[in-house]
Amino acid sequence: xxxxxxxxxxxxxxxxxxxxxxxxxxxxxxxxxxxxxxxxxxxxxxxxxxxxxxxxxxxxxxxxxxxxxxxxxxxxxxxxxxxxxxxxxxxxxxxxxxxxxxxxxxxxxxxxxxxxxxxxxxxxxxxxxxxxxxxxxxxxxxxxxxxxxxxxxxxxxxxxxxxxxxxxxxxxxxxxxxxxxxxxxxxxxxxxxxxxxxxxxxxxxxxxxxxxxxxxxxxxxxxxxxxxxxxxxxxxxxxxxxxxxxxxxxxxxxxx
Length: 256
Ligand SMILES: NC(=O)c1ccc[n+]([C@@H]2O[C@H](COP(=O)([O-])OP(=O)(O)OC[C@H]3O[C@@H](n4cnc5c(N)ncnc54)[C@H](O)[C@@H]3O)[C@@H](O)[C@H]2O)c1
Description:
alpha/beta, Rossmann fold, seven-stranded parallel sheet, 8 helices, 47% helix, 15% strand, binds nicotinamide-adenine-dinucleotide
């Protein structure tokens, strides 16, 4: 029970790693407020947690809207009755283009990857201070540690998330709030296909997938649960002396 009695919020909770995180955090004793844009799948996650004897609530919001993000954080904290843990996990790949980049798509990627993390943390901090501390985990990526030629906007956004984690770690340390980033490598979720699909033809896609797989020392992509375990560790008191780190959970991808 690494999060026994803790009140937690997880964003992008209806799929992939966020969904795995909701289940894992609840299994470890947390009451989880699960936030996502996809109400139907969110309610499935919450129903599964409750069926397993856990505690969870669902809140629907489009986190690419700063106003909606603020409102849903306030609502979640009110419903939980406080906050100890935030896993701000929302993000999207954004545009691949550089020449003729679609600026609306670019701004949406920045809004969901960075602005939502900033706003969630800004709403979380006073609630955590009121409980004498807490833990914030952002989801960055290996693309927040090394450049990504196929996804430059995504990489820029995730480097920003890492910068935000390191900066807030220093800023919030006097309040007993730790802030870290988990940096997943390629993970078996619906988003994986977007990253591996970033080539114009089948041959290019196959060669991209071969190159990506060859670059992972453990020779496989991650399971969502493996990333959720990294977030759980950072969120728990097991990591009580860890703040301001960007933790790769990447099968060794960034070790080269
Ligand atoms: N899958 C990977 O290979 C990979 C690798 C590194 C980092 N990441 C990061 O992990 C996070 C999520 O990825 P995943 O692989 O678990 O994705 P996923 O595709 O399994 O799930 C994404 C979730 O985000 C929700 N979502 C999308 N737009 C939203 C919005 N505007 N407001 C609220 N919710 C919204 C979706 O409904 C979905 O439930 C992102 O931050 C992503 O950048 C993914």
